[in-house]
Design brief:
mainly beta, 5-stranded antiparallel β-sheet, 6% helix, 40% strand
Length: 359
């Protein structure tokens, strides 16, 4: 745990390895971002007014004057108030991988300090797809706070948790009313819980052995992946199961594979859509499927772009600069009709969009 209680450093890399795409050795892992269609709509709206307001007082946050889509860390920013409404969140980011502060960017452009040092935001912190709820580790448990109100919901660690145990956000529902969190000990997941919002009601998510939740579709039943069945690459198809009903759907690649020795399996759910990545040589293609597993779109990524996640009207990708110290990471949305910019961040930044979680 960090000195300020902001988060915990846990062994999560090997949990991600089998399902997350590996980047080429020349491109360090600097950005891990995920978000639903609703999430990126919030981001676009928020960053479009990043210069709209100035702080109204010592705890009002810092507005950074910059081009609409550009995010820069402030020289100083107040800590996020412990209680009370703050504003709708659009981004959590840190400008570097270690010893950099972590900030919450609000829709009106204000920035608040979340932690004095980087604590792997993509693995620990989450914003709900609508930007209302902020989740982060707190003293061994997990806290989900209403940024637009006063509610704070806390998940206590189960009995027997060790020093390296922690909760991590696993998946959001598109309507921001449900969050799945996983409790892991030194990288091994022990249990999953579902948090209902705004009530704060939490319950254990009882799953068959070897099943992992990869998304929350509108039906309300989590989509499950049999990790034992899909941990031996190469894979050209993956079967998902609806918890509670036993219904299955199969996602199939076309010109490549969904995982191999160099690329982990990636599954992302956004409402009624399910997304995977297909690999063929050096080419990465985003595959989009409907709720019953029919492929509805293929989106080959241009060279130098790396996948982020589904967004409104397309799929978000990032371009990492050659000079990461002085350059900027550019995020954009690609679709069949072309591309449009989302925003850019420092070249060494780690970023979490609303809706961002393990899946």
């Amino acid at each position: 745990m960090t000195d300020d209680g902001f988060g915990e450093k846990v062994a999560i890399d090997r949990l991600r390895a089998w399902r997350r795409p590996r980047r080429p050795a020349s491109v360090p892992l600097r950005v891990l971002v995920a978000g639903s269609a609703a999430a990126v709509m919030v981001v676009l709206g928020g960053l479009a007014v990043v210069q709209a307001r100035s702080p109204a007082g010592p705890d009002a946050g810092v507005t950074v004057a910059s081009p609409p889509h550009t995010v820069r860390p402030p020289a100083q920013a107040p800590a996020l108030p412990v209680t009370g409404p703050a504003g709708r969140g659009v981004l959590v980011y840190t400008a570097c991988q270690s010893q950099c502060p972590t900030f919450l960017l609000l829709a009106d452009g204000r920035q608040f300090l979340l932690g004095a040092r980087t604590v792997s935001p993509p693995g620990n912190i989450t914003l709900s797809p609508d930007g209302r709820w902020l989740g982060q580790p707190v003293r061994g448990g997990y806290e989900v706070r209403d940024l637009l109100g006063v509610a704070v919901h806390r998940l206590e660690p189960p009995a027997g948790g060790g020093a390296d145990s922690a909760y991590s956000p696993w998946a959001w529902s598109a309507d921001s009313r449900r969050l799945i969190v996983g409790y892991h000990d030194s990288g091994d997941v022990r249990s999953y819980r579902t948090l209902e919002l705004p009530s704060g009601h939490a319950r254990e998510l009882g799953l068959p052995p070897g099943r992992e939740p990869v998304g929350l579709p509108p039906s309300g039943e989590p989509l499950l992946l049999d990790t034992g069945r899909h941990d031996r690459p190469p894979l050209d198809r993956v079967t998902l199961e609806h918890a509670g009903t036993g219904r299955t759907l199969t996602l199939t690649s076309g010109a490549g594979v969904l995982s191999d020795a160099d690329h982990g399996l990636s599954v992302q759910v956004s409402g009624e859509r399910i997304f995977t990545l297909e690999y063929s040589g050096d080419r990465i293609t985003v595959l989009e499927f409907d709720a019953i597993g029919r492929q509805v779109a293929r989106l080959p990524l241009p060279p130098g772009r790396f996948p982020v996640g589904p967004v409104d009207g397309g799929f978000a990708v990032v371009q990492v600069p050659q000079d990461q110290v002085r350059g900027r990471q550019e995020l954009e949305v690609l679709s069949a009709s072309g591309g449009r910019p989302l925003f850019d961040v420092p070249g060494l930044a780690a970023v979490v969009l609303p809706g961002g979680a393990r899946h």
